[in-house]
Amino acid sequence: MRLADIIVQTLRNAIGAARVALHEPWFRGNEWSYVKECIDTGWVSSVGSYVDRFERDLAQVAGCSHAVAVANGTAGLQVALQICGVGTGDEVLVPALSFVATANAVKHCGAEPHFTDSDFASLGMSIPALADHLSEVAVLRGGACYNKRTGRRIAAMVPMHTFGHPVDMPALMDLAARFCIVVVEDAAESLGSLIGTRHTGTFGSCGVLSFNGNKIVTTGGGGAIITNDPQIARRAKHVTTTARQPHRWAFLHDEVGYNFRMPNLNAALGCAQLEGLGQFVHLKRQLAHHYQEAFGAVDGVAVFHERAGTHANYWLQTLILDESVADQRDLILEATNQAGLMTRPVWELLPHLPMYRDSECMAIPVAESLARRIINLPSGPQLMAEPQ
Amino acid sequence: MRLADIIVQTLRNAIGAARVALHEPWFRGNEWSYVKECIDTGWVSSVGSYVDRFERDLAQVAGCSHAVAVANGTAGLQVALQICGVGTGDEVLVPALSFVATANAVKHCGAEPHFTDSDFASLGMSIPALADHLSEVAVLRGGACYNKRTGRRIAAMVPMHTFGHPVDMPALMDLAARFCIVVVEDAAESLGSLIGTRHTGTFGSCGVLSFNGNKIVTTGGGGAIITNDPQIARRAKHVTTTARQPHRWAFLHDEVGYNFRMPNLNAALGCAQLEGLGQFVHLKRQLAHHYQEAFGAVDGVAVFHERAGTHANYWLQTLILDESVADQRDLILEATNQAGLMTRPVWELLPHLPMYRDSECMAIPVAESLARRIINLPSGPQLMAEPQ
Questions:
Q1: How far is A34 from chain B (nearest CA, A)?
Q2: Burial class for B250, CB neighbours closer than 10 Å (0-12, 13-18, 19+)
Q3: Which terminus has fewer CB within 10 Å in chain B: N or C?
Q4: Which CATH architecture is the domain B3-25+277-384 placed in?
Q5: Among the partner residues A244, A265, A337, nearest to B265 by beta-carbon distance
Q6: Are A213 and B47 a contacting pair at CB < 8 A?
Q7: What pLDDT, on a 0 to 100 scale, did the predictor assign at position A387?
């Protein structure tokens, strides 16, 4: 039997024979009643009680002091980087293995991405490899880090918690401090993921969440900046709401701001979804165990398992092919998708995309290996729920 | 009796004594049922049938071939300008009298605003004044227009249809052609406003609409780029959706794109709202006549009236104070708002804001006069509706 057919069979045994999406939103709670309240009261837009509540609820879930709701994760990353001092001509360390938004947000600040290699254990930035690379290419001058090759300041790094699996943030923060580099966490995929008992996104100066439709919690479209720094939170709120100064009626704006608000309608959906987060994480962790057992007997593949000391939300379930069968990846994608079981490969490596082909990039053997070997499996929490 | 008290009294006689907002959304149609369908089906996010339908409905309403729904008007303007060739170091002509987003979008492209004077008859860009100014400062070189003073290319102009009152677009298009300047219309306030029978936003290369909560039609937050140019529409869709190339599963992005989609949830609200647009415009035009009659007897003020040949949506009703009583503006704002009748002045002139103080700016005597004399009155279509 072909490996592709074995995988289709294993998936069918594990989650049933029906057509199944990669990740669908799940609205079983107060979604409709909160959204209906917005429509009934007319408060659907940029001001409204659900935005305030969503920000409070998020800060509580993440165990940090502040959350600022924004239009989406990309917008949140752009603003977070700008607030943390990234500007035109700077360089920002970004994982080669990430969704394109991580690098785009850097470009939207007028800065340039500098791509880094991955770690097999976390799927995120490799800290030892980055340490070696910085020792080679970086020089400290006047309390700032510069790339000797390009002459540009390396102003920030953006570790991304791939599929909800946390990067080793304490070690990364040590490295960043050693090289005077600000850390903004791309926590778009890791709402509900912890290192010990501490939420991802709260180790760096700030972290950025996403609530797109495919995420563990959705607002339709949306994001948030989370931080323990009241000044970053205040700046984030100001800059994302056209930088308008409070006044009874006058339109006084004190800097070039953005319209990156989250509408109240979307925040209402988010409030209801957040109420379900605990259950979603629980079910997705069950699904991971379930897949781990089901694929335990299949040679040549392994279901990715969280690192010790971390508590992952398992946003997307991940099958890792052995190098020896990596050449069958597309056959497996083909067979599973044709069987109605939606799977996908990981993102094209960012330095391979045309607009980033000439960007700075360290050697990325691990990212290249992972890019050939990752297949994401159907991951919705519904798959482990009792039928209603 | 003080003018402020006369105005409070006139407003109360015209629209009743209850507390009234400047502009509230009005949800009396299919808003619930469309939004509920999104939640019931799980299609709340970046892909979904309401986005497609909203774009089709918008194109039909505006009488153009294409509409691309985006996250908001500011994002739409930024992308429209970029697609029309505006880039770093360019200059863009922007009315001094506009909401700050018009100038911010220019800055977000890396370009610089160059502020222009207003016209008493349209409240928008003065075409004769701009023609004189360009004759003085502009020079044509290789089919492009340059500012002799700054050396920068004047790449585009962004006429804004203030409060829904159309700029004289045929005349402006002639002027723009004469100086080889691209026109992107800021139609954020003018959905439903026509010149003759042609919709605002369809004269320039493209136009940008807004559906913020205070607009005539709302999606909570949102915007759209409308155009008759299929290539602009295709580029707008591509760039606002992370520039991803179609593929069954691979993540191939071919340029630095944005996450400027409108979520399906918001588009659903928009589809229902668009069904009411005809009625909203009708009621707001009735309200304008009603105010014109009510204030006809008040010395020193006039309710702004659409230019001949135009059919305005009267998004915000506008009281113009005579110069002789302009010094009473803040007293009037104070008295009306204290009486629960929400009014507001026009925006602070953009070249007076700190971040635009050093921008290029022609003489703006008309804009300065209008800025002292405009008061927006309560404008919701509800004010003229039969009680339910």
A1: 11
A2: middle
A3: C
A4: Alpha-Beta Complex (3.90)
A5: A265
A6: yes
A7: 60
